[in-house]
Amino acid sequence: MRLPPSALPADTRRRFVELLGAEHVRTDRAARLAHAGGRSYLDLIRLRGGDASGAPDAVLTPAADEIPAVLAACVDTDTAVVPYGGGTSVVGGVSGADRGHAAVVALDLSRLNRLVALDEVAQTATFGAGMRGPDVERALAHRGYTLGHFPQSYRYSTLGGWVATRSAGQASTGYGRIDELVHALRCVTPTGELRLGRGPASAAGPDLLALVVGSEGALGVITEATLTVRRIPPQQRYEGWSLPDLPAGLRALREMAQRLGPGLAPDVCRLSDPDETRSTFLLSGSLPTRLVRGYLAARGRNPGCLAIFGWEGEPGQVAFRHRAATRVLRAHGGVSLGAAAGRSWLHGRFAAPNLRDTLLDHGLLVETLETAAGFGELPQLYARIRRSLRDSLGRVMVLSHVSHLYRGGASLYVTVLAARDPADPVGQWTAAKRAVTETILAAGGTLTHHHAVGTDHRDFLGAEIGTAGLSVLRGVKATLDPTGIMNPGTLLTPPS
């Protein structure tokens, strides 16, 4: 690994040691490499190629009450700060701040790892921002509760990272996106602490809480958040279905979202296109052979579209909601595959990134992108994304699925596999990503549905929120972070 020497000045390091203690200020090679990037394709290609130039000059692990003093020291010494939770960003959100400052430190929040409070009357819980997904669920399960937020990065990502990026868990159709679950938070900025959120709802001016949710560390450091929790559901029912084709599947999902509505639609709704369906069954070592044969017998040569649905709650409610969804699915040509397919998905739902490592070992380009659009725009958006990727990459596999439902539309998640250009793998994907992003925006899709902006999408942000919107964000950043030390280059293009 090619790791540049730490640029942290000795006097700055001494100041950090005085504030935190030597054990919480690390400039050694191992600590810096461990925080050298996120988990995007570009991050992994650079690191696999030995390029660790994005590594911070130091890694700080403060306690919550030490963060204000740390940020003050960073302002005084012109040290950029990259808030670091689980390091799972796939859009360049933790890939090293732009080098417009004297030094860069990663602010590792792993010490903010506790359940602060559980209000069983209001059914809310307050967490330290550094809690990883399994820690969140273990702490709540001990008291009989769940947050129900399970992004694919669940095992490694943190609650603070979910809030900072407006994450959407796999069961968000039922449990809600993270931004729908947040009631209150604390965010330390270079100019002071924000304590936002009071009561179940408020009309006290514009919602500043929503402004911090999704701020990606560019305004400050989220240290604590209060979110809605629920009692652990006594029953889970997951099963697979086959729909004749993607249009029929989308019509079924739209009817679920609009006719059944919130509370009755399945908590998990996933619909794979024919290519992803084929790949799923080719890789279905965990599925019983009889299930695969039954699926193929039901559809013949046409693989149709595999769908996974999940219901959680009281047994009577689950049965009622299941019957309602079954009527919709059968009306659109759906064929039930039973519980084995649902259990298989549930068992392996966090495993896809492991397969990516193997594919990278074999010289492939492997990356994902996602968006969302109204039901009317989704079919054309889907077709144009596929065409754009084929035009850019030539021989390519494009696997897509719908994973989050709304009354007016749904998300679209795309996995891309192609032969990697050994001469310029970074340039190959950068060009393809730019082209497909322009295609998505032109077709009415969102810039991002749940991966956030990071550095990958920042140059396109104005296309979604407009010039006036960018000015508002820049004004907020200038107020809260006047010297521009907070995760520079993420969310907003640094001023020239």
Report on this structure.
By secondary structure, the chain is α+β, with helices and mostly antiparallel strands. It has helices at about 10-20, 30-35, 40-50, 65-75, 135-140, 160-165, 170-175, 180, 210, 245-260, 275-280, 290-300, 315-330, 340-350, 350-360, 380-395, 425-440, 460-480; strands at about 25, 60, 80-85, 105-110, 115-120, 125-130, 145, 180-190, 190-195, 220-230, 230, 235-245, 270, 305-315, 335-340, 365-375, 395-400, 410-420. Strands 15-12-14-13-17-18-16 form a seven-stranded antiparallel beta sheet, sandwiched between helices. Strands 5-6-10-8-9 form a five-stranded antiparallel beta sheet. The protein has a four-stranded mixed beta sheet with strand order 1-2-4-3. The longest helix is centred in the C-terminal third of the chain and has 20 residues, at about 460-480. It is globular.
